[in-house]
Structures are given as C-alpha cells and as structure tokens.
Automatic annotation (TrEMBL):
PANTHER family: GLYOXALASE FAMILY PROTEIN (AFU_ORTHOLOGUE AFUA_5G14830). PROSITE patterns: VOC (PS51819). SUPFAM superfamilies: Glyoxalase/Bleomycin resistance protein/Dihydroxybiphenyl dioxygenase. It comes from the Bacteria. Residues 1-121 form the VOC domain. InterPro entries: Glyas_Bleomycin-R_OHBP_Dase (IPR029068), Glyas_Fos-R_dOase_dom (IPR004360), VOC_core (IPR037523). This is VOC family protein.
Length: 122
C-alpha cells in the first residue's frame, strides 16, 4: 500500500501554488510543511502527495515513465483539475476524455515537468 508520493521541485513556492489549487479541488489541504517540502492529503485518508527540494541539493528532474494518478469524484472534476493545472502553468499531456470503457482521464505536467493525471472510473 502506498503511504504517500513525493515529487521534486526547483521552485517550492511555485509548486505550492500549483498543488494548493489541485488539493483544494480534491477536498484536501496541507498536512505537513517545512522550508524544504509540503505534503497534501488527510492524515487518516488515502495516500498523500508531497513536493520537496531535493535533499542532495542537485536540481529536481521529472522521471521518465513516472506518473501520479489523482482519483477524482466525477468526469466534471477531472475536467476542472485538468483546466486548473493548465491555468497554473502546467502543460497538457492529453485532454480529458474516455481512455477505455469506464475510464475517464486528463493528463498534465506540473510546472517542474512531473506527469500527473486526474481520473475517474465509472
């Protein structure tokens, strides 16, 4: 079972704006933060997501083939999250739509290049 996922960032303030908005849309807030990292989610809930300035001091980079999937409550929420991501400086990796029977998803990258999607299964 996954407890949480952490992504690297080169600009914590920019990442905070991006993920604060996405987390708000998903109905969660910050659960822990410091000068070097922030995590969002519910302490007693599903896996959370965090961003951090790399501990080793080297630049953060997006992993090739790595993607974080955010479970949405509805197709309309997938659409809103995807639009939020783009409005906050993210880039489109696939507009929201059906990707198979009952699987609706929209793909995007955060401003650091990390790939995510929002999805719902109906």
């Amino acid at each position: 079972m996954i407890g949480y996922v952490t992504l690297g960032t080169n600009d914590l303030e920019r990442a905070a704006r991006f993920y604060d908005a996405i987390a708000t849309e998903l109905g969660v807030g910050r659960m822990i933060e410091s000068a070097a990292y922030i995590a969002w989610g519910d302490v007693d809930g599903a896996a959370g997501i965090g961003v951090t300035v790399p501990f080793d001091g080297a630049p953060a980079s997006a992993g090739n083939g790595v993607m974080i999937a955010l479970e949405a409550a509805s197709a309309a929420q997938v659409d809103r999250i995807h639009a939020l991501a783009l409005a906050l400086g993210g880039s489109c990796e696939g507009a929201p739509g059906l990707r198979g029977e009952g699987f609706y998803a929209g793909y995007f990258r955060d401003p650091d290049g990390n790939k995510l999607n929002a999805f719902v299964i109906s």
